[in-house]
Design brief:
This protein is an alpha+beta fold. It has 10 helices and 8 strands. The mean pLDDT is 92. Bound molecules: zinc ion (ZN).
């Protein structure tokens, strides 16, 4: 995998503006992993998908990630940095794997959620409805006392066991940051969603790049492709010469 070029970043940004987060993740993967067909990328487990996105993010914008959080206890604003390596899980989830959970008289077989599953969720639905829907898609068989039953018949504690097993099997799908407030000492966990993190960086980068294209194209009569083809250093040097 290599870094996205300036032109690729702008293309991804333009395409992603009208897309859902799940679709944006696939758009990014398609540009980054040209050797893998789209159907296969869409079948990557969410953790495997996010592992690739994290690598693409590091190659494109560097190994350091900066973030902000608000302390839930005292409201202090916390700025912190982390390395991609700090939040990389040891193993990617196996998209072709079948997993099973046995709980009391219940037995359940399931696979890991993937991008196709996420794309099929209703963005207007609440989290609980979507969680149930995901389960329906991923559970391949369920039994009670040896007899086949429908997913809807599974009790809450079995569903909780499935959710926990899914998280263990695909650790990169749910990254939790351990945060400490320097003001009041409160410790808490906050999720890091690499798709929305990377997307907001691309969005900020694109707004800046378009402004630079506008300034340099106006000053020198260059085309968009000419400006995007410049290294960031040259672009900055020319911008300074135009007085911007
Ligand atoms: Zn605090």
């Amino acid at each position: 995998m290599r870094a996205l070029s300036a032109t690729e970043l702008l293309t991804v940004w333009e395409r992603g503006l009208a897309q859902s987060p799940a679709q944006r993740a696939l758009t990014l993967l398609t540009v980054a992993c040209t050797e893998t067909p789209l159907e296969r990328l869409a079948q990557f487990s969410i953790g495997r998908r996010d592992m690739h996105l994290l690598e693409l993010r590091e190659r494109t914008f560097g190994p350091q990630l900066a973030s902000i959080a608000t302390c839930p206890a005292c409201g202090e604003r916390l700025e912190f940095g982390m390395k991609g390596a700090d939040i990389r899980a040891a193993s990617p989830g196996d998209p072709d794997g079948t997993f099973s959970v046995t709980h009391a008289e219940y037995g359940v077989q399931f696979r890991l959620p993937n991008s196709l599953d996420l794309a099929g969720l209703d963005p207007a639905a609440d989290g609980e409805t979507n969680r149930r829907h995901l389960l329906l898609l991923c559970v391949t068989a369920a039994q009670r006392g040896g007899g086949e039953i429908a997913v809807a018949e599974l009790p809450e504690e079995v569903i909780a066991a499935i959710t926990q097993r899914m998280a263990e099997a695909d650790p990169q799908a749910d990254v939790q940051l351990a945060l400490n407030c320097p003001q009041c000492g409160h410790a808490w966990q906050a999720p890091l969603d690499i798709v929305s993190y990377f997307w907001s960086e691309i969005h900020a980068w694109a707004s800046r790049a378009l402004r630079e294209v506008h300034l340099l194209a106006s000053a020198y009569g260059w085309r968009e492709a000419d400006v995007l083809g410049l290294s960031p250093y040259r672009r900055q040097a020319y911008l300074e010469m135009t007085g911007q």
